[in-house]
Each structure stands twice: as C-alpha cells, then as structure tokens.
C-alpha cells in the first residue's frame, strides 16, 4: 500500500510503518496493548484474506509456521474479537439479526452433536464385534475395508474405543448444552426471576464460559502442533515476533505422533489433541450464542423463554419430566 498515513503526528509512513508504530504503541501498557491490537485488527483481517497462500500453502514451510503462529496469537484473538464486536453491535440494534445468529450457532452445535452422538452406538457395536471375534474365533487381527484392507491387532481396536468416547465428550458438548442436559448445581438460580436468571446467564457466559474456553484453545492449539511437527512450538513462541519464529522454518518437518501405550495398541493419539481444539471452538461458539440468547430473553421477557430452541423430544412425558428435574 503506497498511500501515506500520519502516525503520532511526527512522521508520515506507509501502512506497514503504521503497523510498526502500533506495535511500539502496544508496549506502553495494558490499555495501549488492547487498543493498539484492536486498531491493527482490520489490517490483519484484510491481509489474511488477500494473501491466503502466505498461511495456507503448507508446501511452503514458512506458510505452515505462519499458520501455527497466528492460529493462537493475539492478532487472531483481536481480529475475531473485532468481528464478534461488530456483529454484536448490529445485533443490539437489530434483534432479528441477533436471533438469526442464535439460531445459526445453535443449529450448528445441534448438527455436530447429533452426528457424533452416533459414535456411542458405533463404540458399542465395535466392542461386541471385538469380544465375539476374540473369544469365539480367537482372532488376533481385524481387517476392514473394500479393496484395500485396513488391518490392525485386536488390542489396537480395543484401545481405539477411547476415541469414540472422546468424540462424544468433546463434539457433543454444545448439543448437550443446548438441550439443557448438563448437570446444573445451584442454590439461587431456580428461585430468582426470569430477568435475574438471564443476567446470571450473561455474566456466566462472559466471565466463566468464554474465558475458560479461549484459554483452553490457546494452550490446546500448541499442544496439538507439538505432536504434529518438529521443532516443537509452544505458547511461549506466540509471545515472540513472527520473524523469530520463522527462523525455525528451515528445520521444520512433519512428525506426526504415532506412539501407543502398548506395542500393538492404538497409535493415533494426536487425534485427541485435535478433539481438544475442536471442543474449545465449539464451547466458544456456544458461549457467544448463549450470551446472545440470554440478552434477547432478558429484553423480550418471559414469553421469549426457549424461543426458537430446537430441543429433541424423548417421546415419553415421564422421561422428559425426569430429565428437566435433573
């Protein structure tokens, strides 16, 4: 960008120099750090959209390092913060738009949960097959596939059952929350008014739900990539400048974790790290949706309680009553 931009009133610079100026401004304290990153966010968003190859072309080691670096960086945090803030402001001014966001986010959470809930049935069926083949036919290996067979030891398939359980826990979290199936332990919530409940919900989503999920994502991101590439990167690397991180590009290579707890056991534990990151992202999206819903139900009153909520029916009134109690 060749257009000259005034910076601090002392000199005129290009857009890149302005970003450098903002970087120095961010070192002045917490407020400067916050507003400096917020001012830089539009530039980062536009740069990422206009130069996708710089971080998506993983054949280029530097692009892969940029993807890892920015994947859990302050630059990404403030870019998403700005986008969510703009969407929220539009939603506060137009409640129909905010209801649309709620319905979209909840539909996504429900869809993901309903799909991966079938992992429970798959886990049970696979366990039955393992027991049947191992005890009745004394089979030591199981093969699946058409044309190209995927063959693993029985102990591998037995340990792999843990992956299904992890999928249910991490990928059905939003669905379970939307359905109201999480256990709630409270002494006050059930006895307060509708609007007081919505205030508690808004406070909880902003102070507890979102910060915990964001922190889990930030550390889970590098926990994932430490088991996919070498040299290993950590959260402390994100606090350094990009140029320092890119110095590792020459030595960077894929090194996917394939270590199991037993010689012939399940050896794709990196998938659990992927699920951890997915879990955090789902909770973040649901935290935003929950805040929006709580605000709208607070504003519109008791008649909006559960509005547009897509809840599954058990088909048994007694069972549904028991589920609501618990």
Give a verbal description of the structure.
This protein has 326 residues and is mainly alpha-helical. The chain has one domain. Helix content is 65%, strand content 6%. It has 14 helices and 6 strands. The strands form 3 sheets. Strands 1-2 form a two-stranded antiparallel ribbon. Strands 3-4 form a two-stranded antiparallel sheet. Strand 1 (5-7) and strand 2 (11-13) form a beta hairpin. Helix 1 (15-25) runs antiparallel to helix 2 (30-50). The longest helix has 32 residues, at 194-225. Mean pLDDT is 87; it is low at 1-13.
Main features:
mainly alpha, two-stranded antiparallel ribbon, two-stranded antiparallel sheet, 326 residues, 14 helices
Q: How much is the radius of gyration in Å?
A: 24 Å
Number of helices: 14
**Low-pLDDT runs:** 1-13
Largest sheet: 2 strands, antiparallel
Oligomer state of the chains in this structure: single chain
| Number of domains as seen in the coordinates | 1
* Overall form: flat
Number of strands: 6
Which bin fits the share of residues in helices? 55-70%
Order of helices and strands: EEHHHHHHHEEHHHEHHEHH
Structural class: mainly alpha
Q: How are the secondary structure elements laid out?
A:
Elements (H helix, E strand, L loop, with lengths): L4 E3 L3 E3 L1 H11 L4 H21 L2 H4 L4 H11 L2 H20 L1 H22 L1 H19 L4 E4 L5 E4 H18 L1 H6 L15 H32 L3 E2 L4 H4 L3 H5 L6 E2 L15 H31 L16 H9 L1
Antiparallel strand pairs: 1-2, 3-4, 5-6
Helix pairs in contact: 1-2, 2-5, 5-6, 6-13, 7-8, 8-13, 10-13
Concise account of the structure shown:
This protein has 326 residues and is mainly alpha-helical. It has 14 helices and six strands.
């Amino acid at each position: 960008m060749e257009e000259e931009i005034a910076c601090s009133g002392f000199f005129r610079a290009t857009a890149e120099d302005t970003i450098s100026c903002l970087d120095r401004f961010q070192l002045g304290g917490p407020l400067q750090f916050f507003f400096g990153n917020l001012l830089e966010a539009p530039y980062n968003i536009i740069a990422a959209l206009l130069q996708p190859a710089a971080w998506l072309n993983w054949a280029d080691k530097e692009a892969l390092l940029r993807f890892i670096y920015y994947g859990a960086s302050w630059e990404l945090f403030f870019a998403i913060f700005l986008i969510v803030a703009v969407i929220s402001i539009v939603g506060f001014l137009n409640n129909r738009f905010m209801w649309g966001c709620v319905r979209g986010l909840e539909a996504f959470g429900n869809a993901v949960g309903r799909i991966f809930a079938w992992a429970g049935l798959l886990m049970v069926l696979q366990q039955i097959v393992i027991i049947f083949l191992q005890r009745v036919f004394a089979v030591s290996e199981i093969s699946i596939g058409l044309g190209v067979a995927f063959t693993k030891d029985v102990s591998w398939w037995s340990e792999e059952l843990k992956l299904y359980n992890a999928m249910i826990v991490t990928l059905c979290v939003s669905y379970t929350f939307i359905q109201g199936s999480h256990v709630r332990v409270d002494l006050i919530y059930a006895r307060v008014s509708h609007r007081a409940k919505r205030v508690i919900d808004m406070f909880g989503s902003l102070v507890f739900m979102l910060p915990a999920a964001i922190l889990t994502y930030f550390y889970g991101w590098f926990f994932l990539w430490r088991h996919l590439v070498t040299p290993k990167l950590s959260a402390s690397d994100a606090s350094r400048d990009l140029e320092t991180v890119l110095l590792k590009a020459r030595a960077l290579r894929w090194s996917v974790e394939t270590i199991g707890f037993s010689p012939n056991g399940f050896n794709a534990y990196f998938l659990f790290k992927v699920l951890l990151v997915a879990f955090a992202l789902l909770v973040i999206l649901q935290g935003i949706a929950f805040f929006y819903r709580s605000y709208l139900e607070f504003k519109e009153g008791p008649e909006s309680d559960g509005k547009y909520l897509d809840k599954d029916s058990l088909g048994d009134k007694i069972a549904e009553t028991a589920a609501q109690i618990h």
